[in-house]
Amino acid sequence: MSDESKKPVLSHIDAAGQACMVDVSGKESTVREAMASAMLEISPAVLAALLADGLKKKDALATARVAGIAAAKRTSEWIPLCHPLPLDWVGVVFSTPGQGQLRIECTARTTARTGVEMEALTGVSAAALTIYDMAKAGDKGIRIGPVQLETKTGGQSGAYVRARGNENK
Questions:
Q1: 4 DSSP 8-state letter
Q2: Averaged in consecutive runs of 10 residues, what is the pLDDT profile of the chain (169 residues)?
Q3: Contacts of residue 136, Cβ cutoff 8 Å, sequence gap at least 6
């Protein structure tokens, strides 16, 4: 195998090496779904206040959920080569997998010619940043990451499921 054949294919780079929007006009519209996650490391006391609605700004999780949904709907305004998509549904959920840990998942679904990975990633990022904003008075050292795609279905490239053990890959 030559070095040339090992080059990764980048969908948004044309033959001349310039950034471009992908032409999806020839693709069929199908149901597509993607789920992305973000992990926040936060002091246990501040996390307890978040979960008990004990912050001064109140109801941080509901605010973060709405921020995630709103951001997913406007992804193409933030990511310049991203297609605007008619989203059928966006959901944001929270869980606490360990002490001082808040996991956020954002799932986006559409019937379109291109996938919704960027919408899920944008939504989960906005939700995480909203939590940071609302909790920073109690813990400025909140750490966000990794932010990553977990699953995607639909489209020509088929399904993707992040393999366990590849949380940072």
A1: G
A2: 61 75 84 98 94 74 97 96 95 97 98 95 98 95 98 91 71
A3: 142
How far apart, in whole angstroms, are the C-alpha atoms of residue 123 and residue 139? 23
pLDDT, residue 54, reads 65
pTM of the model: 0.87
CATH code given to domain 27-161: 3.30.70.640
Spatial contact of 34 and 108, defined as CB atoms under 8 Å apart: yes
DSSP string for residues in 88-120: EEEEEEEE--STTEEEEEEEEEEEESS--HHHH
Residues 6+ apart with CB under 8 A from 104: 37, 38, 39, 40, 64, 68, 92, 93, 94, 124, 127, 128, 131
> Domain boundaries in the chain?
27-161
Instruction: Out of 23, 53, 133, 139, pick the active-site residue.
Output: 133
Closest C-alpha to 132, from 97, 104, 92, 168: 104
Encoded tokens for 134:
């609302």
Q: Catalytic site residue 133?
A: yes
